[in-house]
């Protein structure tokens, strides 16, 4: 009676552990995906932010028209400037910008009716050249007709610091779930081996090779890793859809490509992690006679 009840109990425990293992693996892979997706979005946002920071060249009042025009053309041809972003803004056009400004009106920038605003040239840098902006500014300010060059600070750097902290938290959670997944996998396989103890003993007696005995467990581990990866990827794409509905997206960047690469990585990680854990347990138990198992 006891011989028939033990396998039943073992089978029940194995099933519970199996479900817990799959769920934990899905959560771990999903966290990996969110971590990667967050890194992709942060990188794309920083690139987008850098390419959309306007630089203003304040011109001196005595700057000659032909001189400024020639400089504007050379700036448009510069390799570090985004195409079609160089724009000359006269002091009259700049004054019109204050037409509907809630903070400063036209009267605030006029002194006895005289427009105090300078003539300016506005341009945007390419993301790849943004790190060299200080050197670029110095080279522009060398021109005698340039008063100064200034730009509006963007919140990208402070945001990237906050995102970095969030990525660190997700990384810690992911490592925790990796530990949980590995532990559950090993316990599940241990219970599975115990439930099939008699069958394994018989196979060992008839001289079955390790590869022959391990094959069903290895195949199942590959299926588990693949299935968990697919489910995690599905949740990841759903998360991206929800994010884009709430925050929008960057149309000029190929997010589909990077998300697809990330999805492949998630599935591969799920399969490899499941295979490694199963292979380790197989080597630990099936390589030894049943009587020598340390359980």
UniProtKB/TrEMBL annotation:
Pfam families: FtsX (PF02687), FtsX_ECD (PF18075). Residues 172-277 form the ABC3 transporter permease C-terminal domain. Its main location: membrane. Residues 57-149 form the FtsX extracellular domain. It is found in: Cell membrane. Belongs to the ABC-4 integral membrane protein family. FtsX subfamily. GO terms for biological process: cell division. The keyword Membrane applies. InterPro entries: ABC3_permease_C, FtsX, FtsX_ECD. This is Cell division protein FtsX. Keywords: Cell cycle, Cell division, Cell membrane, Membrane, Transmembrane, Transmembrane helix. It comes from uncultured Aureispira sp. It is a multi-pass membrane protein. The keyword Transmembrane applies. The chain crosses the membrane at residues 15-41, 168-187, 225-243, 255-278. GO terms for cellular component: plasma membrane. The lineage of its organism: Bacteria, Pseudomonadati, Bacteroidota, Saprospiria, Saprospirales.
């Amino acid at each position: 009676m006891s011989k028939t009840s033990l396998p039943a109990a073992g089978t029940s425990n194995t099933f519970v552990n199996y479900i817990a293992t799959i769920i934990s693996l899905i959560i771990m892979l999903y966290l990996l995906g969110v971590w990667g997706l967050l890194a992709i979005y942060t990188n794309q946002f920083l690139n987008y932010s850098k390419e959309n920071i306007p630089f203003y060249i304040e011109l001196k009042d005595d700057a000659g028209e032909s001189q400024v025009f020639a400089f504007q053309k050379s700036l448009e041809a510069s390799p570090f400037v985004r195409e079609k972003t160089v724009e000359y803004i006269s002091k009259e056009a700049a004054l019109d910008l204050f037409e509907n400004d809630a903070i400063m009106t036209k009267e605030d920038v006029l002194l006895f009716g005289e427009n105090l605003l300078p003539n300016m040239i506005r341009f945007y840098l390419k993301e790849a050249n943004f790190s060299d902006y200080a050197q670029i500014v110095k080279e522009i300010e060398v021109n005698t007709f340039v008063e100064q060059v200034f730009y509006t600070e963007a919140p990208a750097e402070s945001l990237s610091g906050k995102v970095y902290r969030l990525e660190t938290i997700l990384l810690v959670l992911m490592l925790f779930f990796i530990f949980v997944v590995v532990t559950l996998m090993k316990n599940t396989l241990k219970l599975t081996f115990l439930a099939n103890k008699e069958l394994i003993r018989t196979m060992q007696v008839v001289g079955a090779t390790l590869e022959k005995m391990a094959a069903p467990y290895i195949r199942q581990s590959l299926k588990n890793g693949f299935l968990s990866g697919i489910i995690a990827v599905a949740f990841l794409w759903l998360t991206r859809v929800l994010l884009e509905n709430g925050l929008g997206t960057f149309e000029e960047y190929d997010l589909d490509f990077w998300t697809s690469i990330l999805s492949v990585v998630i599935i591969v990680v799920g399969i490899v992690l499941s295979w490694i854990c199963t292979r380790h347990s197989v080597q630990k138990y099936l390589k030894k006679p049943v009587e020598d198992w340390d359980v």
